[in-house]
Amino acid sequence: MSLEGKTVLVIGGSSGIGQAVSRKAARLGARLLLVARDSAKLESAATELRRQGAQVTTQAMDAADPQALARFCAAAEDIDHAISMVGGAMGGGFLANSEEAVRQAIEEKFFAALRIARAIAPKLHEGGSLTLTSGAGGRPHSASGAIVGNAAIRTLAEGLAVELAPRIRVNAVAPTWMDTPLWRNVPREQTEQTRAYFNKTIPLGRTATTDEVADAYLFAMTCTFLTGHTLVIDGGGWDWSPDCRRFSKAGGFRFRRRQTGLAHPLRHPGADGGNLGRRSKRGRKI
Fold first, then answer.
1. What domains lie within the chain, and their CATH numbers?
2. pTM strictly above 0.85
């Protein structure tokens, strides 16, 4: 893989997964344009990258602010790949949360991503890519609005992949829960309880590191025949429901694949050039 001579925009590149993506992209030769809300953290991340020899430009702003985003994009140029880490989190079911809270969660995930895609796509060079962030942690009854937002982003990636083809590729990455700055306001005890839960329910027996998830973003950027897909980085968690574990312990071994938002629920994310849900000559989906 090489990003030599390419400019990579990372929205949310000052910490967590975004910072790991920036670090790995720089090692592959990319010039970096980092955007984040916290100017102090942004400059700290940029300084660290420059020490390692990276060429870094920064812009402190809230990418979820439509006016700030419009001003940034009006001045931006020379972008090959764009990655958006914009999103949010929420807990609780649909009945436990107010309608306003559910709407806000969807706004922070889906509509923020849609605005970014609309604004950034015209600035991307031909052959470039846009990678959005979805999510794979939680279930509808425990993360309601966030789950709706994640599903909407997967649908957005599929739609934009066709609308922007063949000039731009569009994909999404869906990490499961991991301890990142997104959860900075959650009590540490609750964070540790959540970690223990996922350690038990993920077949690999642990949560991912930021570097492991960052690799998926690098793959989405550099695989030139990958578009319209959501790469689920969850250690097999979506395949490993409680009844599957009971079945396995009883002597059987069988996965029950959950719907992942792809055109066919049994199809793994892969490189098919965006050829989702195509039909055979007989008109059946294949």
1. 7-239 (3.40.50.720)
2. no
